[in-house]
Design brief:
Helix content is 52%, strand content 16%. With 777 residues, the protein is of the alpha+beta class.
Length: 777
């Protein structure tokens, strides 16, 4: 009855892939379930803060934090660390201090995480000593420890003097014959020359000999004092470095508890960061968590199946009114996956993980979570399959209580079906009576039908369409087991299947037929819903295209009106200037002929201004709506002059040039001319006559010959788009005769196109049936 049957370890492995540190990964793989709802909600508040920190792109510096647990253990044992380890620990501590600063800078969006960090008594002085002890290259700093510099200089000067003397010796003609090789080297920490063996006594101190015995390595007498000075400086340097190391290790050991707390907190923050990345990658949301035994999850996607790219979202449901869920349907139809999903969401809540489901989901705190998916350990102990199964069911009974979640895979199987079903029903009723929530899979007809008499039981069917599972749950429906269908797919001989069907009782056959009919009806409903959705999508697409077209037309109309207004203003300014000129001329030299000309110009200006003023006044005063009848010529505030085609309450359909537009009555500025209904019909006859003599040309023709149907329809749609923008009333489409497939597809498509007012096969003088004539809106 282990939670491992819910694939928890695989979930931990998937989550650990997002950890940035070794300690975070270790914590992820070993994390345990939280003990109560308060801890869960606290974990979720912290997760929300971490998700907000990620959204704000705060740098948490987690990658630079290494696991220095072993170094702390060495310090606790009193061991001295090497400088490389001390520097690595300093680097990790530096990253932790930067992490601390980054979160504290964002305290408003991460108050709980800031509080967690402030609980660690971080000593800035501890960090500063480490920071000052090393230079930018990672070496112990001579600036902070000046004696190091003195000893290093003394050693370097002595070594340089030694090397200078050795170079002089190997270049001395008197010494060269003594040398086995013309060079100097270091043996046992001393500078030496490689001499031939018979010259060793008269030259200096022998420190080593070659394997052949022909060469001895001699320290010349002339460098002994220099070598001793270099060695003294080296010993002093080593002593100073050891003192520094002891001081730093003692300092770190004094703050060992703080360093350990920092490291633990870094692991927790790394795991929290991994959970935030998981939530982002899986579009997961933080659920509502109470203590009422409720599960209300929409669109749950099993994260491990989603990683494999074959997930189907499902609804998960449990409540006080329906504390027992019976999952029915065929084998390999998704029942066990759905069963595990209930367990997985309950476990993820107790791990403080976001749920891969729709926002607003609710998963209450469950404890204990009891799972029986077949216990292999009991089988290995020598028990029979059914005995092991009964033992698991009995243990579940012992753990059954308020707040428990019990998950059972086909309880009662492995024995006589009637007895097994009765036993399973009795056990489930007992679990529910104790206050537990129960989810189980079953093939027993008795259990499938218990929801009809006990409202506490709710059934769900694993969907089965066209002989194959879809892994979708249909709530409130009973699913057939489809054992014979599955056997047929696995190539069981037909005679076996026919015999099996004959052996089934009439009641069983009738129930199977009813369930199959329900499956078929459900599949049909699904298909119809799919078609309706596609239709709605097409309608939305057409509406958006029309909206774009209308916006384009409005833009063009506005541009035209703006241009006209600009021209009028310019002319007004010119006339005003001209009038001023004539007045000035009259004042200089009065003349009746000149006065008459000036008066004519001014009257023209006043007449034009009077027309403009009249239209504005008409708009401000309003119009008599009774005058707006079919056939009336009106002026619209945007579309300009048009003819009313029909009128309905506060709207009218108006023909503006080649466009037919529905406008609001209040948008009509002026009634220019009122016509009777017969005159309107006459105008329509004139319009039809005008359309009937539309001429075919390259600009209003579209040749689709030679294209495949799909490509041809795309070309036609693009062509009609451009023609509508150009306000062309009639276009000609050439599809040819061929097999007739393209012609049929084009004319069928035109029936549903929102651009088309009407279409017809072309007359003989227009090219015949190889052409289609299209009247646009």
């Amino acid at each position: 009855m282990s939670l491992n049957t819910l694939d928890i370890k695989r979930l931990f492995q998937a989550l650990s892939a997002h950890c940035l540190t070794h300690q975070g990964t270790s914590l992820c793989l070993e994390q345990s379930l939280m003990a109560n709802r308060e801890k869960v909600n606290g974990a979720y508040r912290r997760l929300k803060e971490m998700m907000q920190l990620r959204s704000s792109e705060a740098d948490l510096h987690l990658r630079q934090v290494t696991d220095y647990t072993a170094l702390l253990d060495q310090l606790e044992l009193g061991e001295l660390l090497v400088f490389e380890d001390i520097y690595d620990l300093y680097q990790s501590l530096s990253a932790l201090f930067e992490l601390r600063k980054s979160i504290l800078r964002n305290q408003k969006i991460a108050p709980m995480l800031s509080e967690d960090l402030l609980k660690v008594n971080a000593d800035e002085a501890m960090f500063q000593i480490l920071a000052l002890s090393f230079d930018e290259r990672g070496y112990v700093s001579e600036r902070f420890y000046p004696k190091l510099g003195i000893y290093r200089v003394q050693k370097t000067e002595a070594e340089q003097a030694i090397q200078k003397e050795l170079r002089r010796l190997i270049e001395d003609p008197a010494v060269i014959p003594m040398l086995q090789e013309v060079l100097y080297t270091v043996k046992n920490g001393r500078y030496v020359l490689p001499l031939k063996v018979h010259f060793k006594r008269s030259f200096g101190i022998v420190h080593a000999r070659s394997q052949s015995g022909e060469t001895v390595y001699v320290e010349p007498i002339s460098i002994l004092n220099l070598a001793n000075r270099a060695r003294e400086a080296e010993l002093a340097l080593e002593h100073e470095l050891r003192e520094i190391k002891i001081k730093l290790c003692r300092h770190l050991n004094q703050h060992r508890s703080v360093l350990k707390a920092f490291l633990v907190l870094s692991a927790e923050l790394d795991l929290l960061h991994a959970k935030a990345v998981f939530a982002q990658n899986f579009d997961a949301h933080i659920p509502i968590v109470l203590n009422e035994g409720v599960v209300q999850v929409e669109g749950f996607r099993h994260p491990l199946l989603e990683l494999q790219g074959k997930v189907v979202s499902n609804r998960l449901f449990l409540s006080s009114d329906n504390p027992a869920i019976l999952l029915t349907g065929p084998n390999a139809g998704g029942k066990t996956v759905a069963l595990k999903s209930f367990g997985l969401v309950a476990v993820m809540v107790r791990l403080g993980m976001a749920i891969p489901a729709d926002s607003g989901s609710r998963v209450d705190f469950f404890d204990p979570i009891v799972v029986d998916l077949g216990d292999q350990q009991e089988l290995e102990s020598g028990l029979s399959t059914f005995a092991a199964h009964l033992l698991s069911l009995n243990r579940a009974l012992e753990k059954s209580c308020r707040g428990a979640l019990i998950l059972l895979d086909e309880p009662g199987m492995g024995t006589d079906p009637s007895q097994g079903a009765a036993l399973a029903q009795s056990l489930i009723e007992s679990y529910v009576d104790s206050g537990a929530r129960v989810v189980c899979t079953t093939h027993f007809v008795r259990l499938k039908m218990v929801s009809e008499v006990d409202p506490r039981f709710l059934v769900a069917a694993a969907q089965f369409e066209k002989g194959r599972p879809t892994y979708q749950l249909n709530w409130g429906e009973i699913g057939a087991s489809h054992a014979l269908d599955l056997a047929r797919q696995l190539n069981i001989p037909p005679r076996i299947l026919e015999r099996a069907q004959k052996l089934m009782s009439a009641q069983e056959l009738k129930l199977g037929q009813i369930l199959n009919q329900l499956d078929a009806q459900r599949a049909l409903n699904t298909e119809m819903n799919s078609k309706l959705r596609k239709k709605e999508e097409q309608i939305d697409k057409d509406a958006k295209r029309i909206e774009r077209l209308e916006d384009r037309v409005l833009h063009l109309q506005k541009g035209r009106k703006d241009r006209e207004h600009s021209v009028f203003l310019k002319r007004l300014e010119d006339l005003e200037d001209e009038a001023k000129g004539w007045v000035a001329e009259l004042q200089k030299r009065p003349s009746s002929q000149l006065a008459g000309k000036t008066l004519k110009q001014i009257r023209g200006l006043l007449s034009e201004q009077r027309d403009k003023t009249h239209r504005v006044a008409a708009k401000s005063m309003g119009i008599d709506e009774k005058d707006i009848l079919p056939g009336t010529t009106i002026r619209h505030s945007v579309w300009g002059v048009g003819t009313v085609l029909s009128r309905a309450k506060q709207k009218a359909h108006v023909q503006f040039s080649s466009l037919r537009v529905e406008v609001a009555i209040k948008e009509i500025e002026e009634v220019l001319e009122s016509k009777s209904a017969p005159q309107n019909r006459a105008s329509k006859r004139v319009e039809v006559l005008q359309k009937s003599v539309s001429l075919k040309g390259n600009s209003n023709s579209c040749d689709l010959r030679g294209e495949r149907v799909d490509d041809a329809l795309k070309s036609l749609e693009s062509f009609l788009d451009s023609q509508m923008l150009s306000k062309v009333p009639t276009v000609f489409v050439l599809h040819g005769h061929g097999t007739g497939a393209l012609k049929k597809a084009v004319r069928q498509w035109l029936k549903s196109c929102s651009y088309v007012r009407d279409w017809r096969p072309a007359e003989q003088h227009e090219g015949g049936d190889a052409w289609t004539v299209v009247e646009l809106q």
